[in-house]
Write a structure and sequence with these properties.
Layout (H helix, E strand, L loop, with lengths): L2 H26 L5 H19 L1
Length: 53
């Protein structure tokens, strides 16, 4: 297995585990207003996009 294939496999496994942990995260956000969550997602997307350009 090449280095690129190993990187891809590790990235895929990480994403799979992260996706499996999301329900725990959403349970913690039960008391948070959905508008606040959307606002945070929009703001942080702008911040990350600004620094990635």
């Amino acid at each position: 297995m090449s280095t690129e294939e190993k990187k891809g496999l590790l990235a895929g496994l990480f994403c799979y585990v992260l996706w499996g942990c999301f329900p725990l995260y959403w349970k913690l956000l039960n008391d948070v207003n959905s508008f606040e969550i959307i606002a945070h997602r929009i703001i942080w997307c702008f911040v990350v996009t600004y620094f990635l350009r």
